[in-house]
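#lab-general

N.A. 3:47 PM
ok so I finally got the sequence cleaned up, no stray characters, all 497 residues accounted for. can someone with queue access submit it? mine expired

B.Y. 3:52 PM
send it over

N.A. 3:53 PM
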Amino acid sequence: MSIVFIFLALILPINQIYSDSIQTNNEKANKSFDLSPHIKRAYLLIWQGEPVNPYAENSDTYINGLSYWIGDLRNFIDYLGTNSDASYHAYVKSANECLENLSSMPRNSPWYYYCRSEVYTRLAIARVQKGNNAKGLLAIREALLLINTMNEKFPDFVPGKKYQYGLTLVGGVLPNQYKGLASFFGIKGNLKESVKNIKAYYQTLSDPKHEYNFMAAETGFIYALVNLFITEDFEQVRYALDHLPKYTTGECYEVLRTTIYLKLHQSDKVAKILKKICTPTNKPVYPILDYYYGQSLLYECNPKSKFYIARFIKSFQGDNYIKDAWLKLSWAFQVGGETRSALNARRLVKTEGTEFIEEDKSAAVEASFPLDNLHLLQGRLYFDGGLYNLSVLELNQTKLSDNQEDAAQLYYRYGRSYQALKQNTQAIENYNKAIKISLKNSYYAPASTYFIGSIYEGNGNKAEAKKYFNRTLKEYKNYPYFNSFELKAKAGLTRLK
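B.Y. 4:20 PM
back already:
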């Protein structure tokens, strides 16, 4: 669950607090946790972005505790992605009121522990997003304690399986220095077993007649994200997306779906999904979808992409992805032959937005360099869109200059495209050239080192794969996307045990 919310927390905009967001708990009312048809329907409508009152069943004489869980879900999704102090404090206040109301509900139900753990998890994400790591860790601690109690008292509770398998997965990829802390909270790791269990859990919930089918989509996205970022089993990512329930409609679901397709270099699928949502006369509810549609066009070297990227920058209320968006807008101008506008957009990378996420940190570094050679840039864009043969054709037209970093980038881009085309000998050859000439603290040497390891892993050469994953961890520090490649390399070593 938290994996899905961490994704959304970085990209969704704030709208407004609902006036019915919290209802005061009446001590005299009859209280229970009832998984009623209204609760299931409200859960789906919230994810679909449709209006719904989670508290419609509550009255002076009856309170359904699940209404608080659903209400917090709605508020959290509605507030994800904002960095304003007002919205942050508003969500923290509503979440704490929700926890207070839940605390007076019956404790003889697994839902008591499940609902409170979920609210604490959301609260932790909100706090960490605002840089309040200490309080975020405290919220995570509360969530873990509740989850452990739930698992001990109600081991067969179906929704709780999500946390059982998720914690086992986390324990399986944690660095050694955190193993002791994980053990303190009862987290034991087994990567392969947990991934297998999450898939089986997803398949079980996907039965339309299953009592918890309304949770299947969330579990499917968790399974997709785990395979995308931890196991790097892209066939299983596609499996997860292809088997999502039919009810996964609405912009919130499309944010998750298109996020994953972009990471899979399937920009054609992103464009197909979003071309009816994002038009010159229709703005999406979530501005991030404009950004994604603009990227899907940019990865075809279509200068029309600049309209949607610019509209995202204008309408997005959060701070994340702003630097990255200005950089991509610069690329769109350059592809369209508008050099002056490209330079102006590049200058704004330095002054707009923040450097909280890795995409923005990387954009800030890239903006300090001159404009790329056009063929080199278009080769990069075609690769990101999954057009690997076109990428190689563009790279073939790139003339090497005296710029050492441009040369390192060229060899790295060749390596990426050849690897995607399963021409691994050429890929490794070019990766090694990039490693040899890459500048200190550059992205291209550690990335090339990691991808050589991934090639060897795919070929079943565990010894060489481990060698290059360890080199990624030990030889390089303080470069763009350091955190991502550190996690990837550690996960790779875990897979090879």
